[in-house]
Amino acid sequence: MSVAAFRAELLSVPEDPRLAGDAAVRHHRDGLLVVEDGIVAAFGDHAALAPRYPGVEVRHFPGKLIVPGFVDAHVHYPQLDRVAAHGEQLLSWLDRHIFPEERRFADRAHADGVAAFFLDELLRNGTTSALVFATVHAASVDALFEAALARNMRVISGKVLMDEGPEGLRDTVASGRADTEALIARWRGRGRLGYAVTPRFALTSSDAQLEDAGALVAAHADVLMHTHLSENTGEIAAVAQRFPHAADYLDVYDRFGLVGPRSVFAHTIHVEERALARLAQAGSGVAFCPTSNLFLGSGLFDIDQLDGHGVPAGLGSDIGAGTSFSLLATMGEAYKVSQMRGHRLDPLRALHLATAGGAQVMGIGARVGGLQPGQEADFVVLDPAATPLLARRASGAALIETLFALQILGDDRAVAHTYLAGTCAWSRDGTMEATPCTTR
Fold this sequence. Notes:
With about 450 residues, the chain is of the alpha/beta class. It has 16 helices and 16 strands. A hairpin with a 2-residue loop joins strand 2 (about 25-35) and strand 3. The radius of gyration is 21 Å and the shape is globular. It starts with a strand and ends in a 13-residue tail after the last strand.
């Protein structure tokens, strides 16, 4: 048995503070995290736990804060090279910037190179689990899964279903099903990988393909359904024109069996009360993607509206419309969006959304997100003194002030180390290591 211990300030928010209050928070100013064979064995006060583990090597990170690994609930790896593409809103942005880029993923070597850089960038920003869009090409999923398996990352992805897409990015109902079934069979049970049936959005699939996507979800109890919903007013108008008999955008998916407890909908900005009630009833989850929504001018996510209906949410970077891989920065932008909506997003709740909340939305909440005993030991060592301004702001500050400063002023520079299953996967000097990181 391999046992390791890590000493630092510890913070985890495995439950939603909006519902559980102070009981949602696990905090130890001088804490000890003990990991046995990649699984959390103990999380608590150093003075209380240390005598239980005599002789175990302790890696001490004085002045640092250990939190669960970040969970990105919506991100597009093939859009990596189109981050910061100027001048468009959603539909024209897709046509001008994204679809030409995604055609390049017909080349497996290209997909391999992007997947490797993408996953390393996630780790550099402290993200240890992610729900990831690939492209219409089955090999784009193979490239991502092979790279994730090599790094022991928890990644969920799937081939995009898109039989009414642009030239060079179309499949068919039959090929989409065959590729999806083959990918599920090829990757099921390997490492920490999971599959998501992935219709891009309602406008890029025929009725027959949407129906078949629903059948795929029904046939495989271990897969998610991952798509986009009500992101942009122009998109919503186009969906209403295409599906005139649907009650609303969500109802389009519902008619094809795509709304359920394993469904994750990105964006969900412009949503009617009926649809919110249906999301809650179905147990579906939502990914809040503030940097993307601001960059494309899509709108302001209303977390109060979702809370009122009990719809669960996580945070998504949504690279490449999103502008930062950092979920610290994403938490900061979520705060600003909420301010514009008249809601003050609590820093502890923001951390929950970026960790356990996202994990719960993705159906992996029992495994990651809370650093609770029995969970996989994915965690991030944060440095509140990573920049001169952060150091000055956090000096002598209470936990909540320090956490909020990290969310507003922090980014990848605040990540000192990223651990996967108790083994260091990234250090701030950029070295990818197979052995535990040294202290800094």
